[in-house]
Amino acid sequence: MPYSFKCKDVGMKxxxxxxxxxxxxxxMEMIKTHAKNAHNIQEITKDLEDKVxxxxxxx
Length: 59
Ligand SMILES: [Zn+2]
What we know:
Blueprint: E1 3-6, E2 17-21, H1 24-39, H2 46-55, E3 57-58
Antiparallel strand pairs: 1-2, 1-3
């Protein structure tokens, strides 16, 4: 089941998106790396993680 995520769905002005991640865990890791590198977010807070999880689409 592929998972996808768009950074703009959490309110960022950012074109980052991931398509076809094989698991939610893998996707979260990619998002954490992106958040650190692109948005200087060193740690995903619980609030942000909830936001991210709601923006993740599984299809
Ligand atoms: Zn982004």
